[in-house]
TrEMBL record:
It comes from Rissa tridactyla. The keyword Coiled coil applies. This is CCD27 protein. InterPro entries: CC-FHA_domain (IPR052642). It comes from the Eukaryota.
Length: 191
């Protein structure tokens, strides 16, 4: 944005110089036309005297080409300057367009990144919700296992938080006792 502002200021300065130079060129052209008109007016107003006409004509011809040459030289310089300024203005406009195009591409990339970030945030939220559901189900399942394990006959209810290893040991103990009881019944012939 700073580069574009700088380029636009340069462009405005160059365009201002171009307008000023164009105005000066027009002024020079107008002065040149006025001098030509004055020369024509002087030549029509002066009565025809062959001797004086030749003398005035010689002096006019001698002075007039120099003035015309100076004006044409100034005009050529102004035209050259105008050409240079127009080239600079064109170059600055191209740079501004290039910078604007680059900024537009950056904005599109930023919007795409923002869109992806929003999609990732949405997925993260969905994942957290799913994780909370799974955690809640796991805790309920664990609670039921603990309840079933420690509510059997001969088990002591836990006094504090029970670890997974303690629950596993208690379940293993219950399973082993049942297996032993089942084997004892099989040995006595009870189905």
């Amino acid at each position: 944005t700073g580069t574009i502002s700088s380029l636009q200021r340069q462009l405005e300065i160059q365009e201002s110089q171009l307008r000023r130079t164009t105005s000066e060129k027009e002024t020079l052209q107008r002065k040149l036309r006025e001098q030509e008109n004055q020369l024509q007016a002087m030549s029509t107003k002066v009565p025809y005297h062959p001797e004086s006409t030749v003398a005035i004509g010689n002096s006019l011809i001698y002075v007039s080409p120099q003035a015309v040459t100076e004006q044409e030289s100034k005009l050529a310089e102004q035209n050259k300057l105008i050409g240079e300024l127009q080239g600079t203005v064109s170059q600055l406009r191209a740079e501004v367009l290039s910078s604007q195009h680059h900024i537009h591409k950056q904005q599109q990339a930023q919007q795409e990144i923002q869109s992806r970030a929003e999609a990732l945030q949405h997925r993260e939220l969905q994942t957290r919700v799913a994780l909370e559901r799974i955690t809640s189900r796991f805790e309920r399942y664990r609670s039921k296992i603990i309840q079933a394990t420690f509510s059997t006959a001969g088990s002591k209810p836990p006094q504090a938080e029970v670890t997974d290893e303690e629950v596993l040991e208690a379940m293993q103990k219950i399973i082993n006792e049942r297996l032993e009881f089942h084997q004892m019944l099989n040995q006595k012939g009870v189905k």
